[in-house]
Amino acid sequence: YGESKWASLQAAEKVLKAAIDRAGAKYSFTHGLVSLCKTLADTGLHFDTDAQVTAVQCRPGIRYGEEPCTRNEALAAHRASLELVNILREAGAKFDLGIGGLKRST
Fold first, then answer.
1. Chain centroid to CA 31: how far?
2. In sequence order, which ranges of the chain are alpha helices (DSSP H)?
3. Which is nearest to 19 in space by CA: 49, 4, 40?
4. CA separation (Å) from 19 to 16, 73, 100?
5. CA 30 to chain centre
6. Which phi and psi angles does 60 have, rounded to 5°?
7. The whole model's pTM is what?
8. 86 pLDDT exceeds 90?
């Protein structure tokens, strides 16, 4: 379960870094989601991801059992990482729809 939660952290981290990059800002090389959220908020985007960040944030040692993780915590982190994408998109993050720029059909 720890590896799953770590993967959710990695996904959330990449989403935040992509949003920061798309906003024209620079991000630090960190696994700290709070710091990345602050950087993104500093670009003028207004959002509340406190609950998602709390559910996802963990230390690297979780992959090796150095930090406990239950099945429910891993699932909550997975869901929170997906919620994060939607919250940022709804707040105005400059994400493209689809893979490779493909657009959703209407």
1. 10
2. 2-22, 33-41, 50-56, 71-91
3. 40
4. 5, 25, 16
5. 12
6. -55, -30
7. 0.89
8. yes
